[in-house]
TrEMBL record:
GO terms for biological process: Mo-molybdopterin cofactor biosynthetic process. CDD domains: MoaE. Pfam families: MoaE. The keyword Transferase applies. Keywords: Cytoplasm, Molybdenum cofactor biosynthesis, Transferase. The keyword Transmembrane does not apply. This is Molybdopterin synthase catalytic subunit. Catalytic subunit of the molybdopterin synthase complex, a complex that catalyzes the conversion of precursor Z into molybdopterin. Acts by mediating the incorporation of 2 sulfur atoms from thiocarboxylated MOCS2A into precursor Z to generate a dithiolene group. GO terms for cellular component: molybdopterin synthase complex. Substrate binds at residues 152-153, 168, 175-177. Its EC number is 2.8.1.12. Pathway: Cofactor biosynthesis; molybdopterin biosynthesis. Belongs to the MoaE family. MOCS2B subfamily.
């Protein structure tokens, strides 16, 4: 066991509508903290455990239903049940020309694997495949394919229904509908747990919420850090970005701008002998004289 100081990087990721509002995909925060290192010995036998026949994937390419069905085909199974979700060409009298999907890929794959494992705890199944397409999906093309094989049909049928309902409720995948006329819209899944919770205007205790969420998923109150309206969240994000831009501009001035004739600061570590020139259409411009 050892204690050491280390620099920790925290990455803030923005997806779907949040990405469009902020204009960026990610932000990085750095801080130092002391961590405790512990080394554990793992027995070689741990790696010898039989891996479950789970097949999860996110891909930009068109989904091949026949290949996915083949993944879950085994000699001891008498049934393969599947669900195929495709893009339809209409929504509330609007003509849809395509869908666009975006995902937090690492977390989405983890949640899809969890769905496979939960299926195995409830039903006797052999192979479980969940493939989801991201990016653009044209009309009548598949966006998600779920296939489950089992010795008898009843178990695979129930497992497929559970899989698609749970995927809609818990996997971080966002869908944008693009119309022939009018602005595209990001759509929210009605089954999504966190969306339904945030929409409730009446205050509820965490215990009440946990009782209404199926599969005994528990929300830890300590993990809920922000309770605010969409307007307030947008305001906070905008203020945060403005502060970060101001900090970056300040650092750029300190690093690049040293006008020795006026300041006489020969000890400056600035890399360019320059002076800051303010412009009407920008907050920071640097005019360089010569490179050191």
């Amino acid at each position: 066991m050892d204690k050491t100081d280390t620099q920790v990087q925290t990455t803030i990721l923005f997806f779907a509508k949040a990405r469009e509002i902020t204009g960026c995909k990610e932000l990085f925060l750095y801080y130092r903290r002391r961590i405790r290192l512990q080394l554990f010995h793992h027995l070689a036998e741990d790696n010898m455990e039989k891996k479950p026949k789970n097949f999860v994937k996110l891909q930009q390419e068109e989904l091949n239903v026949a290949e996915i069905m083949e993944l879950v085909t085994f000699p001891n199974c008498g049934a393969i049940s599947n669900f195929i979700g495709i893009t339809r060409d209409n929504f509330e009298n609007k003509k849809v020309i395509k869908l666009e999907y975006e995902a937090y890929e690492s977390m989405a794959l983890k949640e899809m694997t969890n769905i496979c494992n939960k299926i195995r705890l409830q039903w006797h199944v052999e192979g479980v495949a969940i493939h989801h397409r991201i990016g653009e999906v044209p009309i009548s093309k598949a966006s998600v394919v779920i296939a489950v094989s089992s010795p008898h049909r009843e178990e695979s049928l129930r497992a497929v229904e559970y899989a698609i309902n749970t995927l809609k409720a818990s996997v971080p995948i966002w869908k944008k509908e693009v119309y022939e006329t009018g602005e595209p819209q990001w759509k929210q899944n009605k089954e999504c747990k966190w969306t339904n919770i945030l929409k409730r205007e009446d205050a509820q205790t965490v215990a009440d919420i946990n009782e209404k969420i199926p599969n005994k998923d528990v929300i830890d109150q300590n993990l809920v850090q922000i309770r605010a309206s969409s307007k307030e969240l947008n305001h906070r994000i905008k203020s945060f970005i403005e502060r970060k831009r101001h900090q970056v501009n300040t650092v750029n001035v300190q690093e690049f701008c040293r006008h020795s004739e006026k300041s006489g600061n020969e000890n400056s570590c600035a890399r360019v002998d320059a002076i800051l020139i303010r412009r009407k259409d920008s907050k920071s411009h640097v005019k360089g004289n010569n490179v050191k």
